[in-house]
Amino acid sequence: MENNKLTIGITQGDINSISYEVILKTLLESKVYEPHAVVIYGSAKVAAYHKKALDINQLNINVINSAREAEWGAINLINCTDDDVKVEFGKSTSIAGKASFQALEAAAADMKAGLIDVLVTGPINKKNIQSDSFHFPGHTEYLEQVLGDGNKALMLMVSDVLRVAVATGHMALSEVSSALSVSLLLQKIKLLDQSLKKDFGISKPRIAVLALNPHAGEEGLLGREEVEIISPAIQKAQDQGYYCFGPIAADGFFGADNFSRYDAILAMYHDQGLIPFKTLCRDEGVNFTAGLPVVRTSPAHGTAYALAGNNEASESSFRSALYLACDIFKNRVRYFENNSNPLKKQHIVHSGDLSDLPVQDEE
Fold first, then answer.
1. What is the pLDDT, as a whole number, of residue 217?
2. Which of 177, 234, 290, 311 is most open to solvent, judged by the fewest CB atoms within 10 Å of its CB?
3. Would you state the pLDDT for residue 342?
4. How does pLDDT run across 105-123, given as a tens digit for each residue?
C-alpha cells in the first residue's frame, strides 16, 4: 500500500458466467476504484468479448505483464489464459474451469508476494474448476491452504443488515451433525469475534449461535447436538470472556427480527445461514473470507448461467464486495495501529493527550 492507495486484485471467475459482466459494470464508475489501482487477472481477449456483448466501449483497460506495472486510478489486466480460449455463454465447460483457476492461482501468488493488497474474486463453477491442482469445495478452502499461513478460514456473509458465519461451510447436509464438535464451534466463535474486532471495528461483539435442530432440540427430544455440543461450546466461550448466546432456534430468530440485536450470527450449516441472508440482503450481500492474514471478498451470488450474455445481471453485490475489501483492509491497519503499542496508548489516554491516538470506529 502506497499513500493509502490500494492495489485491488480481481479474478475473472467463470468466463461463461455473469462474472465479467458484474466486474465491468462495476468498473464503469471510476469513483468506485479511484485513487487505487485495479488489476484484473484474466484475459484481454475474453474481456473484449464481454465488453462488446455488453456494448461497453468506453472502458479502457491497460494490459500489463506484472502487478508491479499497475497504473494508479486505472484498470489493468494481466493475461492468465491462452489466447484461443472460447467463451460460450451459459455453459459449464472445462475450458472455463481451467481459465478460472489460472486467474485465481496467479492472483493468489501475487497476493502472497505482496503485489496486491486485497482480492475480490469473481464467481466460479465449483464443478468445472476441479483438477489435480484444485480439489477444494470452493474459494474459501483453497485460499485457506494457499494464503492462510496456518490460520483457519471462516466464511462470513456480510451486508448492512446482518453478518452470518457458517460453522461447517461447503458440506453435504448429511455430514453436518458428525462434523460438529465443541472444539470446532469454539474455534469458529473465536474466529468470528476476532474478525468483528479487527475487520469491522467492533470492540465488544455480540454473537448469536444458532441451534441445529428444530426448536433448539427441545432439551434433547428432537436431537442431542444442542445438549452435547452447542451449549457446552457456548459455555466454554463465555467462560473465556466471549459475548456469545444460544443455542437459538433459527426459525423464530429470523422471523422475529431478533438478529438485529447481535453483531453477527454463527449458523451451523450453509443453507441455515445463507437462505435468510440472501432473502434479507438480496443483491447487496458479500462473501468475506475471515480468519486469514489476507483480505478476500466476493459477490454473494454464483455464476448465474441463465443470465449470462443477456446484460441483465446486477453488479450491486460485486460493487459491495470491492468496497468492503478496501474498508476491511483499512480497518485492519487501524486495528494494528491501535494495538501495536498498548503501553503507549495507555499513557496517552491517562495523560489526557489524545492528539496521537488513532480513532477507531465502532458499529
1. 82
2. 311
3. 56
4. 999 999 999 999 999 999 9
Single-letter code of the amino acid located at 255: G
Q: What is the dihedral of CA 170, 172, 174, 178, to 10 degrees?
A: -40
> How high is the pLDDT of residue 204?
95
How is the chain split into domains, by residue range?
Answer: 1-153+292-363, 154-286
Cβ(179)–Cβ(171) below 8 Å: yes
- pLDDT for res 3: 64
Rg of the chain, C-alpha, whole Å: 21
DSSP 5: B
Q: Alpha helices of 201-241 — where are they, by DSSP H?
A: 225, 231-239
- The topology under which CATH files domain 1-153+292-363 is Isopropylmalate Dehydrogenase (3.40.718)
What is d(CA 242, CA 235) in angstroms, rounded to the nearest whole number?
A: 9
Q: What are phi and psi of 149, to 5 degrees?
A: 55, 40
**Cα–Cα distance for residue pair 53/43, rounded to 1 Å:** 15
Nearest partner of 29 among 301, 331, 322, judged by Cα: 322
In the chain the beta strands, taken as DSSP E runs, fall at: 7-11, 37-42, 62-64, 75-79, 118-121, 154-158, 163-166, 207-210, 244-248, 264-267, 286-290, 295-299
The reply to whether domains 1-153+292-363 and 154-286 share a CATH topology is yes
Cα–Cα distance measured from residue 335 to residue 295, given in angstroms and rounded to the nearest whole number = 14
Looking at residue 30, its amino acid is S
pTM across the whole model:
0.89
Q: Which residues in the chain show pLDDT less than 70?
A: 1-3, 341-363
* Contact indicator for 55, 25 with CB cutoff of 8 Å: no
Provide the b/e sequence for 222-232 (b: ≥16 CB within 10 Å): ebebbeebbbe
CATH of domain 154-286: 3.40.718.10
